[in-house]
Description:
single chain, 240 residues, alpha/beta, Rossmann fold, 2 domains, six-stranded mixed β-sheet, four-stranded antiparallel β-sheet, 9 helices, 25% strand
Amino acid sequence: MLEGINLTKCFGALAAVKDLSFKIEEREIVGLIGPNGAGKTTLFNLICGVYRPDSGRIKFLGHDITGLEPYKICRLGIARTHQIVRPFLNMTALENVVVSMLYGAGKSLSNARSEALGFLKFVGLEDKKDTLAQNLNLYERKSVEIARSLASNPKILLLDEVIAGLNPSEIVEAKKSIERIRDELGITVFWIEHVMKAIKGTVERVIVIQYGEKIAEGTFEEIINNKKVIDAYLGEKYMF
């Protein structure tokens, strides 16, 4: 479904992504982990067109999308959340999602409001539809971010640390939402995460990168027992 082929992106002398290849199959939930500064968000930025790779190609549904403008990539069916959530603070939760429907999915204003309400309901925020984003807590803002991404009608959703900063009960609810995105909406998920307990039991595969290079790939159990991953990221004392 989504494929990166020998991707490299440098910022000056720093290779943020280096000769990195990956494949994401339809209806998978795939985790992407690695130390801070490993190149995870840079990879998402390459996929979404924020950056153009210095070399390598990106294919989506068999088509080369390398270097396309972000809005064109979004319209093709690739949506994302951001590590730092930035809703329109002076707009309501519902209005935030409506904006995504208008500009991400190209919907008309006459249809956008009712459909946007459906996405808010999906993430459990129907009762917050008229609340200004500035008055929402972190979990609610992240839920609005997910609803906005879903409103652009994606085929694959790129999640960037949606669990970070949440309490244990909120993490449980967020995991359920991510599973429902795949199981009920049929949307593939590619998910950057540091909270390993969050991806346990949710992802089919995990890709691990360090210094911009892929160092391991496999099931969750294979990854947490991989010596390279333990040395580079998890540490010997990491317990599950």
